[in-house]
Amino acid sequence: MSSSPSSSASYRAAGVDTAAGDRAVELMKSAVSATHGPEVAGGVGGFAGLFDASALLGYRRPMLVTSTDGVGTKVAIAQAIDKHDTIGQDLVGMVVDDIVVVGARPLFMTDYIACGRVVPERIADIVRGIAQACAATGTALVGGETAEHPGLLGPDDYDVAGAATGVVEADRVLGAERVQDGDVVLALASSGLHSNGFSLVRHILAERGIGFTDRSAELGGVVGEVLLEPTRLYTRELLELLDDAELGDGVHALSHVTGGGIAANLARVLPRGSHAEVDRGSWTPPQVFRALAGLSGASLESTEGTWNLGIGFVAVVDAARAEQIAGSLTAAGIDTWPVATVNTAAADLAGFEQGAKGVDGGAVRLVGSYRS
Questions:
Q1: Class of domain 176-367 (CATH, top level)
Q2: d(C-alpha 239, C-alpha 254), whole Å
Q3: 0.85 cut: is pTM over it?
Q4: What 3-state DSSP class applies to 155?
Q5: CA-CA distance, 312 to 327, in Å (whole number)?
Q6: Residue-wise over 104-121: b if at least 16 C-beta within 10 A, else e?
Q7: Domain parsing of the chain, residue ranges
Q8: pLDDT digits (tens, 9 = 90+) for 148-166
Q9: Pairwise CA distance, residues 253 & 257, whole Å
Q10: How confident is the model at residue 361 (pLDDT cuts 50, 70, 90)?
Q11: For 15-169, CATH number?
């Protein structure tokens, strides 16, 4: 049923501006279209995205892989300093990089933005960030939704979420069943906090009376800008590694270090009965973690279940190819180094973290002291 002029005016009076929404779509359209290859049909603005899946006919047994996530309270910092062009990369990092964990190649993604008021330029900044990160990971952004919720969210409040789908050959799925005794655990450097633990970050700063627009000598710049360092994207480099004829088969498991920290996320991809001790002395946590821990009066060790502390991904690899794999990833721009060895011998597991997120996996603990 079409709306009469009076009903449209009433909707605007209620706080929903459909014209602003249309303007936002126009501003983001070119960035979204840039992620589209020949597989994407229908363009931007349809009720649903169309993706030609005929390429999957070349798979012997294609397994579809899906992931969904958001950015969390990091968006509060973007809102506080009115900077919205990086939060989209955080979303893609949280969603698409979960797909590559099982060895899958991302195909397409959709996003959802809920806001109190549509500001076209702000929404376009967010979506441009999503689109640019999708392009960097080889993912088509095939659709999305911006929903205006006046009265539920404040005029400048918003939240972002997304979902992605990928594909992997069934006999190429990575995971705990491939991990062997003696495998080496490689750490892949993070770009900073990524998108986890920001409730703790905000609490620490509030307790110290530090604002997001303040300059901080400890953090090395304007607080909000430092904290908005976008999540590193790992998908393209990891897929290139997996496609490498010499090194790809040496990768047995991958884990994305997100909520729960290093130990919990590594334990999820180790087989039951195995254990690994991650050597803290093998790396120096970046300054942002040391500064925040110092401001809170806490030790770095006490934050291990919250922050990634400089390790954004881990790879469990064949010991004979570990050095080559680490060198390959480092040459591709992601500093990579060994931090542990997988052991399947019986051991006293007191103090280890065993499994996580409902997965009855291996056991992991961090040992030693961080390199200063």
A1: alpha beta
A2: 11
A3: yes
A4: coil
A5: 17
A6: bbbbbbbbbbbbbbbbbe
A7: 15-169, 176-367
A8: 999 899 999 999 999 999 9
A9: 13
A10: confident
A11: 3.30.1330.10
